[in-house]
Write a structure and sequence with these properties.
heterodimer, A: alpha+beta, four-stranded mixed β-sheet, 10 strands, about 15% strand, globular, B: alpha+beta, four-stranded antiparallel β-sheet, 12 helices
């Protein structure tokens, strides 16, 4: 057993931390305030080889592992959770299903440009009437000659409007038990459009939109996996995706803790730094401990996936603990900063707003508990 | 023991509920965009809500303290902004004059404050003196028939809109907190400089500013009480003011709980309302229990005060518990709304942003614990 990160992983972490501090952090507040996505940041990540970390070099990837990918998301999220999720959705939700279920043509045509960062990926599962109950979706795909015609809409799509490639799910056989199919949709397919952009509490510089299929014609070559395999692909994709979110949550929490610790050491009241008060220092101790546990769970799930071992329970646990930790830690971080923490002059209020979504998307905490309890009680 | 509201208190509750629904609710969007609700305060003045407990001889409605707390509670359910504006205006903006002023000061200032023609504010906090308010540095130097004030204050609610500021400054720096004096400062006094508006996480529409006093000359007649009484005056009014903030917290928590409950009954997933899932139902049960306990703590403190009984411990407990409940309930309410709760289309993300500050101002939760533990340990 070995809990040390390899030198390669350490170097990757340092490289990304540097990038995050110099290229991402300076504009994070502005982008949050103005709900601005910066394509330039994504392009710079591509130059650094960060947009296809776990994919083999034969598909344009870095040929590294899922742990490296989690470290990347964590380090980015330490300064900007929006940038963290941009990469996570692109890699885990769009890249992974094509890597696992795509044929050679699809991997060269779609995975390669995503891995190289030339194109951005997204994932379209959720609908107004089907959130946690993803199986209740109502987007339909009807065979028409060599094509499928898609009709319906999806909501809450991360990278919506900036993505070129969307992995989407539609019902091909309403009667069947496994009647959903996965498709690769390009943004310029006729009948595909981007709808409303959500105004959000946090991760405001990650665009979240509706996507609309209005007689959208998708060639049969763009079926991902088999007809009827859609739901399984969707769920398996989320199994890994939720570990990316766990990494994002760990990053958010760590960034908030670091800021709180620095402030608590500097802020003098009653003649001493506020860390001299157990009311503050014990809080910091609890925060640090929960982050440590969350990080270990996240890295464990990544290690299991990298080693082709079952990781579904591990990733659900990681996402559950890390999300709750991020919410608690950031709420306490604002507290440690006092009145200043409530203003936009300090970053912690942004971290608190960003943290909340990690308890909701890619499977709410309630869904994580369902997944975990089913696994441990069966 | 009697847990019923009196007829008068019920009338207050119904009147404020009505006002909140017809006048405040339509203005929430503008407040979120940053507009200060001056016209609503004028209307509240017309309804006798700006001087609820002030004696009739000074233009007040001379109602009991509990009625005032009911008003803050009900206002805050619709808008936490209206709740804090009223609480600050009354408890720490008007009451210092009412309880510690001489007859001339009371006659000069209270009638206009009670009618809402004037708005009150309270200036204690400084950049280096938050929880450690006693270490404030603003100076007041006697000069003939005047005092000359120099210094800076921060996080002043109603600042920039107020007509009357209760300002705390040191007339005797050697004596530490015992050297602090309280003054009544009118707006537009030369040397009173309204500084920047804080950009806050929540409570948008409530103005929170920095102020500086630059060689600000005020009449010695504006000294409140005696020199050296300042800290005692500040704490006495904060001790009671925190019941108002506890009521504001209660309002936020109730609003979040009601919204979440209504949504959980409507939102169908997996063929049934999500309220029927224990994961959600149990959450609502816990939230409702905490809100009930908060309500009882708030009204216990209010009632003790109404009866003229000592309420320091109870007020702190109410503020500590109710603000924690507001934060927890708002976080869970967003959770129950799922992805929708994270968007600006639903009110729960506003409750989330508004709730946090209730754990910080008018005595952080840590200060409340210090107060309570002193009472408990003796």
């Amino acid at each position: 057993m070995n809990f040390q990160l390899s030198e390669e992983h350490q170097q990757l972490r340092e490289m990304i931390r540097d990038f995050a501090i110099n290229e991402v952090a300076p504009t994070a507040e502005h982008r949050d305030e103005h709900e601005e996505f910066d394509r330039g940041i994504f392009d710079k990540m591509a130059e650094l080889g960060l947009t296809g970390i776990p994919w083999p070099e034969e598909y344009g990837g870095a040929g590294f592992d899922y742990l490296a990918y989690c470290i990347a998301v964590e380090e980015l999220s330490r300064v900007c959770a929006s940038t963290g999720v941009t990469l996570s959705a692109h890699t885990s939700l769009a890249g992974w299903p094509i890597f696992k279920f795509g044929n050679e043509e699809q991997k060269q045509k779609y995975l390669r440009p995503m891995a190289e960062g030339k194109k951005i990926g997204a994932y379209g599962l959720t609908e107004p009437g089907s959130g946690s109950d993803a199986g209740g979706m109502k987007t339909y795909a009807v065979k028409d000659g060599d094509d499928y015609i898609l009709n319906g809409s999806k909501i809450f799509i991360t990278n919506g409007g900036v993505a070129d490639i969307y992995v989407v799910f539609a019902v091909t056989d309403p009667e069947a038990k496994n009647g959903t199919t996965a498709f690769i949709v390009e943004a310029d397919f006729p009948g595909f459009s981007v709808g409303k952009k959500e105004k959000k509490l946090g991760i405001r510089s990650s665009p979240t939109t509706e996507i609309i299929f209005d007689n959208c014609r998708v060639p049969k070559e763009n079926v991902l996996g088999e007809e009827g395999q859609g739901f399984i692909i969707a769920m398996k994709t989320l199994d890994g995706g939720r570990n990316g979110i766990a990494a994002q949550a760990v990053g958010i929490a760590q960034g908030a803790l670091d800021a709180a610790v620095d402030y608590a050491k500097e802020r003098v009241q009653f003649g001493k730094p506020i860390t001299a008060n157990q009311g503050v220092s014990f809080k910091l101790a609890d925060m640090a401990t929960e982050i440590e546990a969350s990080r270990l769970l996240t890295y464990q799930a990544a290690w299991l996936e990298s080693n082709d071992l079952p990781y579904g329970k591990a990733s659900a646990m990681a996402k559950l603990l890390a999300g709750d930790t991020a919410m608690k830690v950031t709420t306490e971080a604002v507290q440690v900063f006092g009145g200043y923490g409530y203003t936009k002059d300090y970053p912690v209020e942004r971290y608190m707003r960003d943290a909340k979504i990690t308890q909701i998307y890619e499977g709410t905490q309630e869904i994580q508990r369902l997944v975990i309890s089913r696994m441990i009680t069966k | 023991m009697n847990l019923q509201f009196t007829d008068e208190q019920l009338m207050m509750r119904n009147m404020v509920r009505d006002f909140a629904k017809t006048e405040i609710e339509p203005f929430i969007e503008q407040m979120e965009a940053g507009e200060f609700p001056r016209h609503l305060l004028t209307k509240m003045g017309e309804l006798g809500l700006m001087g609820i407990t002030a004696p009739a001889e000074y233009g007040g409605a001379e109602m009991d303290f509990t009625s005032y707390i009911i008003a803050i509670h009900e206002l805050s359910k619709v808008s936490a902004v209206m709740g804090v504006i009223l609480s600050v205006h009354t408890s720490v903006g008007t009451n210092p004059i009412l309880y510690f002023g001489n007859e001339d000061q009371k006659k000069k200032y209270v009638p206009k404050l009670a009618s809402g023609e004037s708005i009150g504010a309270f200036c204690l906090t400084e950049p280096s003196a938050g929880s450690d308010a006693g270490s404030l540095k603003t100076k007041a130097v006697r000069d003939g028939e005047h005092y000359v004030l120099d210094g800076a204050k921060v996080f002043i609610t109603n600042g920039g809109e107020a007509d009357v500021y209760i300002v705390f400054a040191s007339t005797n720096p050697e004596a530490g907190s015992r050297g602090i004096s309280a003054f009544i400062v009118e707006k537009n006094t030369p040397g009173l400089i309204i500084g920047k508006d804080e950009r806050k996480m929540g409570l948008h529409g409530s103005r929170t500013v920095q102020l500086t006093f630059e060689n600000m000359r005020i009449s010695a007649e504006n000294l409140l009480g005696q020199e050296g009484d300042g800290f005692k005056i500040a704490l006495a009014n904060l001790d009671v003011g925190r019941i108002g903030i506890a009521a504001q917290s209660l309002g936020i928590a109730e609003a979040a709980l009601e919204a979440a409950t209504a949504y959980a009954k409507e939102r169908i997933q997996f063929g049934k309302p999500i309220a029927k899932q224990q994961g959600v139902g149990f959450k609502l049960a816990d939230m409702a229990t905490a809100v009930e306990a908060s309500k009882l703590l708030v009204y216990q403190a209010a009632n003790l005060r109404s009866e003229g009984l000592s309420c320091g411990k109870e007020a702190s407990m109410a503020k500590l518990f109710a603000s924690q409940t507001a934060m927890d309930t708002a976080i869970e309410a967003v959770q129950i709304f799922g992805g929708y709760g994270y968007t600006e289309d639903y009110p729960v993300e506003r409750y989330f942003r508004d709730a946090k500050v209730t754990q910080i101002y008018e005595g952080t939760s840590e200060i409340q614990r210090i107060v309570i533990s002193k009472h408990v340990i003796g």
